[in-house]
Design goal:
Elements (H helix, E strand, L loop, with lengths): L12 H11 L4 H8 L3 H14 L5 H15 L2
Helix pairs in contact: 1-3, 1-4, 2-3
Length: about 70
């Protein structure tokens, strides 16, 4: 159920990919390397994800992403 994470369906594919990687505990640098992106681009995705999911902090973003990955085995 996606109920506990309203707004997830508004994420673009790339944003969802970044969200999943954050949920697996990857750092901005690791995500940038793995997706062949600049770190500033990953930061932009993170900001957009926080915005769309109405999360207030990076800590909340990591927490929710981790929870989502556990719940969905993604």
């Amino acid at each position: 159920p996606q109920g506990q994470l309203a707004g997830l369906e508004t994420l673009a594919d790339r944003e969802l990919e970044v969200f999943q990687m954050l949920g697996r505990g990857k750092s901005t640098r690791e995500i940038a390397t793995e997706l062949n992106l600049g770190e500033s681009t990953v930061e932009t995705y993170r900001a957009r994800i926080k915005d769309k999911l109405q999360l207030r902090s990076a800590a909340e973003l990591y927490l929710r992403a981790g929870q989502w990955v556990r719940d969905h085995g993604a």
